[in-house]
What does this fold into?
Amino acid sequence: MPTSFEKRRAEFGEYLRRLRIDAGYETGKDFARAIGWNAPKVSKIENGRQTAGDEDLETWLTAVHAPAERSAELRVRLAAIRDAYASWREKVRDGYRARQEESLSREARARRIRAVDLLIVPGLLQTAEYARHAILSHAKVHGGAQDITEAVRARMQRQQILHEPGRTIELLTAEAVFQYPIAPPEVMIAQVHRLLSIVGTPEIRFGIIPAGTLLPYPVTGGFWIVDDVVMIENAPGEHLVDDVDEVGTCHEVADLLWTIAAENDAAKTVLQRVLDNTSR
It folds into this structure.
């Protein structure tokens, strides 16, 4: 089943296809020849397999003599599609601090936050050194401005909401985070102590899935539900989902995972085991 992002892109492509036909270009090949493109590019855009760039759209609109009002509408639609999925290289082009400040702003407005991160400590619970290693690892792959110190500071600022009233915050991780660490032992030990200090905090529901637990659903990546929007991160980029059904599915998966999570004293037991193993 296509995602809401894929549906939007397909609908956008179909809209462009109709404009092309209405302008007298019967085939995509004819249109490609007229604007100096290769035919596969036209086909991919029209069939929702490729997102048009700003210059692509302007070329298309000019070729079909689209009215100003319709052109403006399509520019807005394209911007919305791009917002729904942005590559990490695009996200961090202006630096990692900007990306963290974006999250800070979103979370500050939120009434409910549910994070499911099974291979990394959720950002709202990271120590500064753990966050530094996480962002540095990211920068090695995706590049971007090397404002790591400022980005870490912004990520720490995000954590202020943990102690503000009026929110529901659920943060779920897994023991696997410590079996596949992204930082040296001393950093991971400090991170365990940070999580131990959170357990039992009234404003926060914290859970950790013990190693070896049978999963009720195969989770292939982390996701955050912030009010009515889901943020799904993968290696290429970040996908924002606001389709009601898809958001509901993510809530359902989160609910299933919480059924096997250790909380309160059970969570302390898991974290103490991690601490003992890491300290050896």
Summary: The longest strand covers residues 168-174.
